[in-house]
């Protein structure tokens, strides 16, 4: 079966034709979102791109969208990336143009679904997934079911408060996991310490990124190592809480920050093992997502598989 997966972002829309049997993306394309053109125009451009890619040869469409999603009705209730899309009927509008089933889900939820159907969560019934990018998103599957809460907007794992006296988060609270472990937070931590550590190699380049900071931690740059340790501690506290609450078989971590690799994952695994209650030891694995740049498209395609299973 062929499914269209749409990774809807504020800047770009990534579209893929996915063969669900092999788990491979047969074709993919990317277009600029151009939010300023208005919702109906954006949907028309997405529909045109889907038809150009697939020639109409697909079963259904899955869309992973940022924001608060009414998945039953295919409506974007609110999304910070699409400020004018209040109660926007994304699913119904696309259905009119394609005459195919359209399923919509929050992008963090689609990430955990992608891992369940195509990634490190394949064959698992209890999964926690975190994506560490500009922000921190999360999704949870328990007993093979996606947990979304009363209004479909639950499992905001990035906004679990790690330290109530911590830095201000974009959500308005203080000390959320996102305020410590997102790429945005990692860069902020470096910039805040520039006066105290002016000789750090972090400041030798014009552009400071989470990747460059972790690369310098591998070279034992003092400030880079301090930041890495703070990220690990925050993640370990958050993940330990998720283990105690959800009792997952696997915790899968993706997004750009996850690509730091062993320098992040080795101390993280060690610290979580120190923090978890004895009864939870050896009940879980912490794994880096294998889906990498295809996570968005495969996650979106997985929305269809989950809804129709």
TrEMBL record:
Xref: Gene3D superfamilies: 3.30.420.40
Keyword ATP-binding found: yes
Entry EC number(s): 2.7.1.2
Superkingdom of the organism of origin: Bacteria
Pfam families reported for this sequence: ROK
Keywords: ATP-binding, Kinase, Nucleotide-binding, Transferase
InterPro entries assigned to the protein according to its UniProt record, in alphabetical order: ATPase_NBD, ROK, ROK_cs, ROK_glcA
Protein family according to the UniProt entry: Belongs to the ROK (NagC/XylR) family.
Protein name (database record): Glucokinase
Source organism of this protein record: Thermosipho affectus
UniProt lineage: Bacteria, Thermotogati, Thermotogota, Thermotogae, Thermotogales
């Amino acid at each position: 079966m062929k499914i269209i997966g749409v990774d809807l972002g504020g800047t770009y829309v990534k579209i893929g034709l996915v063969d669900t049997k092999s788990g491979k993306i047969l074709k993919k394309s990317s277009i600029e979102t151009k939010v300023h053109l208005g919702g109906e125009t954006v949907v028309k451009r997405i529909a045109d791109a889907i038809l150009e890619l697939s020639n109409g040869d697909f079963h259904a469409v899955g869309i992973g969208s940022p924001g608060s999603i009414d998945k039953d009705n295919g409506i974007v209730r609110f999304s910070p990336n699409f400020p004018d899309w209040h109660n926007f009927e994304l699913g119904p509008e696309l259905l009119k143009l394609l005459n195919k089933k359209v399923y919509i889900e929050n992008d963090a939820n689609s990430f955990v679904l992608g891992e369940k159907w195509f990634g490190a969560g394949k064959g698992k019934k209890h999964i926690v997934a975190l994506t560490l990018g500009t922000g921190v998103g999360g999704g949870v599957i328990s007993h093979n079911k996606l947990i979304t809460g009363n209004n479909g907007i639950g499992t905001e794992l990035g906004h679990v408060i790690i330290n109530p006296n911590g830095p201000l988060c974009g959500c308005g609270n203080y000390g959320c996991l996102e305020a410590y472990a997102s790429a945005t937070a990692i860069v902020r931590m470096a910039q805040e310490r520039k006066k105290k550590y002016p000789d750090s190699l972090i400041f030798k380049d014009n552009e400071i990124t989470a990747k460059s900071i972790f690369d310098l931690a591998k070279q034992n740059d003092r400030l880079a190592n301090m930041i890495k340790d703070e990220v690990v501690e925050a993640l370990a506290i958050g993940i330990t809480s998720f283990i105690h609450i959800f009792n997952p078989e696997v915790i899968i971590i993706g997004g750009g920050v996850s690509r730091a690799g062993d320098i992040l994952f080795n101390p993280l695994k060690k610290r979580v093992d120190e923090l978890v209650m004895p009864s939870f030891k050896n009940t879980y694995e912490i794994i880096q997502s294998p889906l990498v740049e295809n996570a968005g498209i495969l996650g979106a395609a997985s929305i269809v598989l989950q809804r129709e299973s």
